[in-house]
Amino acid sequence: MFLFATLAETTQYVNFNALMGENSEIAFSVFGLPIRWYALAYLAGIFLGYWYLLKLIAQPGAPMARRHADDMIFYAMLGIILGGRIGYVLFYNLEAYIREPLAVFRLWDGGMSLHGGVIGVLVAIWYVTRREKLNFLRFCDYIACTIPFGLFLGRAANFVNGELWGRTTDVPWAIIFPDSGTMMPRHPSQLYEAGLEGLLMMAILAFLFWRTDARYKPGFLVGMASVIYGFSRFFVEFFREPDVQRQWVVDATGLSMGQWLTVPMIVIGLWLVATAKRRRQRVEPIAGPDAVA
């Protein structure tokens, strides 16, 4: 908000490079190896989510114990990385990777899909709950409450990197992103997403978990997370510059690839929320004292 207020007081748009500096994507170097903000955001999001998950499962009626949470962090990391990368390849840039298949392994070049990451995490949850004979939907509910940490930090890192910029605009808080190829002011859409997908979702899910009985309705919290993310992403995509390699989707349908990918999330999320009450069950705590961090 301070950034927006400052920009609104001036008639000159801020240049991103002047604001963040050159090579803003690099946080620091270790023995000459550059450590990028995006990688730090991923790690911080995962470990903050793990810390919060331990707080959640310490409450009565938790669907998992501490040992399950410890297992989940490993499989979640695999799901995020593999699912995010494969999702990006399939959804956004398949043609380029068909031409150069080995580029799939160059993670340092960027290219991750949140939708693919979600699928990867769901596969990880399915594996852990099947192996341990736990309730899949209730497990998803608790994991969903931790996701906003990663979403917020990831979108903040997108902004620091000067990537995934918005469409051209004349709003007072617009920013010029030189890497976009033009010197036209654009929406800082990364910050819009950080606020809606991160902070707003975090606040709503925290209220539902701590102040209501939502956690005893299997599928309710993960359904709400899916709906909030879906509508937030769908809305912000109107301000975000479409991926150039998928511009044909916008030209053909009027909606971006990101918007089309959120439609199933919204539909499934609404169904989970609407049917959660009938799945309510008498929940016995399984976490016990070992759930406390």
From TrEMBL:
Task: Name the residues that bind a 1,2-diacyl-sn-glycero-3-phospho-(1'-sn-glycerol).
Answer: R155
Q: GO cellular-component terms in the record?
A: plasma membrane
Look up keyword tRNA processing and say if it applies.
Answer: no
- How the protein sits in the membrane? Multi-pass membrane protein
What enzyme class is recorded for this protein? Answer: transferase
Q: So, what pathway does this thing act in?
A: Protein modification; lipoprotein biosynthesis (diacylglyceryl transfer)
Q: What is the superkingdom listed in this entry's lineage?
A: Bacteria
- Give the main localization category: membrane
The protein in question is named: Phosphatidylglycerol--prolipoprotein diacylglyceryl transferase
- The scientific name of the source species is Sphingopyxis macrogoltabida (Sphingomonas macrogoltabidus)
What phylogenetic lineage does the species belong to? Bacteria, Pseudomonadati, Pseudomonadota, Alphaproteobacteria, Sphingomonadales
Q: Which gene encodes it?
A: lgt
